[in-house]
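hey
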């Protein structure tokens, strides 16, 4: 009969096999898989209750949660949206846009969580690709990979690096520094961008935009726009102004001083010209932006409101709006909303929107303030169809506090004046005091599953170490790879971690491989730092499958990708990253 130590080792091996099998076959979710596995180790007394719960007291769990909260606050504040609009508005070439987009996203991802960054950026990538008649599938994988590569360059760029740091601190070792990852991460940002510019774009699929298939986006509206004072369109021809071949819109007619003029390409635009377009909802919302050079007369002061949204409603058959003109019904005064476009099925609506008589069944595109839903609660004049877009204008002082506070927190932490934990908690308190963030919204942004995964992975690491399983696996690993030298050992660790991360999750791969890496360094009498970093890079730089990293999953559906698309584009980049990371770490530490 085996002794207690041997029996405990068998239990740990069974647990590891269960975790790998569960992730690969998707038997349960990642969090529940870890809960089952660690609970089993508790039941067979491999782990004590205090060892199971020790992970929840780990500082890095709170750091990850606070970074996710901060990323969500930045996303809600609409700051990045305004920033992207100013940068990408003049870019019309695929390679140039890819270069700018990947460089910007990688740079931002170094200092903010990459998941909310990709969530904010995706609508802009889709909008740009649609306007320039390029498939989003040419851009969404580069977007995800840029966020991953940038996140690998600093301690706080990705939750994977923070999890590794949590495991490091849990072993009683000093915390990793903000730029410990930079020596490999920064060169890989440059290499990764060049990889897509010169090769990746060519092999990415040219899939049809699946969003174009939605019926609601195919509704044709008539929208009225005016060339406003000081517009950059004044004095330009229709051709020069870019109004002749708009994606999703076409110019129907021009009214100048109550007279219709021909909309030929060489007609010069003047202040006060009324332009009438036919087009789709998504394209029309671009006219609301200040940089369009156009104004929608019906909006009035609504564009000055802090928060508005674009939505569709349909006029009911017993509506009091029916057979009355838009101007007569005073929609803005009655409902805190402006009619910016009208769709009438089977009929071309012509003339000024204010003079159009509404009919039952008309679909109205509205720019609405926050009071619309309250005012419309007791009316049967129209029914809501869909919300198209939310628009918000951040206050300058809130922007300064949010961005300035974030930069200051990261800087003070990097210089060692204060821990990242204390810097972030003080920043969040400051954001609540100045009403930049609503404390009631913060719990909605907490990823409890991620917290459970991290805490349970720490417990798993304790079990592997105390039973000697990590040391046993390390011994086998050393015997196989040591003959190849330090370079070969690092290469082996990168390869097996990358494979596990690609087909289960990066968190699970870190939990399994990290204690083995530390034990291997001890067996070799080597510095543990390269082993720590190689596991972090291999787990986070996950390009081969859509399931290996959350940003890959986010772009998988909207891009219409298949598994082989990620494998085709991501596998060469994975091997490039492996060779660069192993070479640099070997030169520094061996």
């Amino acid at each position: 009969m085996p002794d207690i130590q041997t029996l405990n080792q068998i239990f740990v091996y069974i647990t590891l096999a269960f975790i790998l099998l569960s992730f690969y076959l998707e038997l349960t979710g990642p969090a529940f898989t870890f809960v089952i596995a660690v609970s089993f180790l508790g039941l067979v007394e491999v782990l004590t209750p205090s060892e199971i719960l020790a992970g929840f007291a780990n500082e890095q769990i709170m750091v990850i949660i606070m970074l996710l909260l901060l990323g969500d606050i930045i996303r809600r504040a609409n700051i990045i949206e305004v920033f992207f609009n100013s940068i990408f508005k003049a870019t019309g070439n695929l390679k140039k846009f890819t270069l700018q987009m990947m460089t910007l996203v990688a740079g931002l991802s170094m200092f903010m969580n990459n998941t909310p960054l990709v969530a904010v950026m995706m609508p802009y990538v889709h909008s740009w690709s649609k306007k320039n008649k390029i498939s989003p599938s040419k851009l969404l994988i580069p977007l995800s990979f840029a966020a991953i590569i940038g996140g690998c360059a600093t301690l706080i760029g990705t939750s994977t690096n923070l999890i590794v740091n949590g495991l490091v601190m849990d072993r009683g070792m000093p915390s990793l520094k903000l730029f410990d990852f930079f020596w490999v991460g920064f060169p890989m940002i440059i290499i990764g961008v060049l990889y897509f510019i010169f090769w990746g774009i060519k092999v990415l699929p040219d899939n049809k935009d699946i969003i174009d298939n939605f019926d609601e986006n195919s509704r044709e509206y008539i929208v009225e726009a005016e060339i406003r004072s000081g517009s950059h369109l004044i004095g330009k021809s229709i051709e020069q102004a870019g109004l002749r071949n708009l994606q999703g819109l076409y110019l129907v007619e021009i009214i100048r001083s109550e007279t219709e003029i021909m909309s030929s390409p060489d007609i010069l635009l003047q202040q006060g010209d009324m332009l009438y377009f036919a087009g789709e909802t998504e394209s029309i919302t671009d006219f609301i932006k200040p940089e369009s050079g156009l104004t929608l007369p019906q909006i009035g002061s609504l564009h000055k409101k802090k928060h508005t949204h674009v939505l569709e409603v349909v006029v009911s058959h017993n509506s009091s709006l029916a057979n009355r003109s838009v101007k007569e019904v005073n929609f803005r005064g009655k409902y805190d909303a402006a009619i910016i476009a009208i769709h009438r099925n089977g009929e071309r609506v012509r003339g000024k929107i204010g003079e159009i008589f509404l009919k039952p069944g008309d679909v109205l595109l509205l720019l609405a303030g926050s009071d619309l839903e309250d005012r419309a609660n007791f009316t049967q004049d129209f029914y809501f169809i869909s919300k198209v877009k939310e628009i918000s204008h951040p206050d300058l002082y809130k922007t300064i506090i949010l961005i300035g506070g974030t930069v200051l927190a990261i800087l003070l932490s990097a210089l060692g004046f204060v821990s990242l934990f204390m810097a972030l908690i003080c920043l969040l308190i400051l954001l609540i005091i100045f009403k930049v963030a609503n404390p009631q919204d913060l719990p909605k942004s907490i990823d409890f599953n991620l917290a459970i995964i991290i805490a349970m992975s720490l417990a798993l690491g304790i079990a592997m170490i105390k039973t000697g399983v990590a040391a046993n696996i390390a011994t086998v690993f050393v015997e196989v790879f040591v003959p190849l030298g330090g370079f070969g050992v690092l290469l082996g660790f990168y390869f097996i971690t990358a494979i596990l991360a690609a087909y289960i999750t990066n968190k699970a791969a870190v939990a399994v491989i990290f204690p083995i890496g530390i034990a291997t360094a001890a067996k070799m009498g080597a510095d543990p730092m390269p082993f720590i970093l190689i596991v972090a890079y291999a787990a986070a730089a996950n390009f081969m499958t859509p399931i290996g990293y959350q940003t890959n999953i986010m772009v998988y559906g909207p891009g219409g990708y298949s598994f082989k698309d990620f494998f085709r584009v991501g596998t060469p980049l994975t091997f490039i990253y492996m060779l660069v990371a192993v070479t640099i770490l070997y030169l520094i530490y061996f």
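The chain has 23 helices and nine strands. The longest strand covers residues 382-392.
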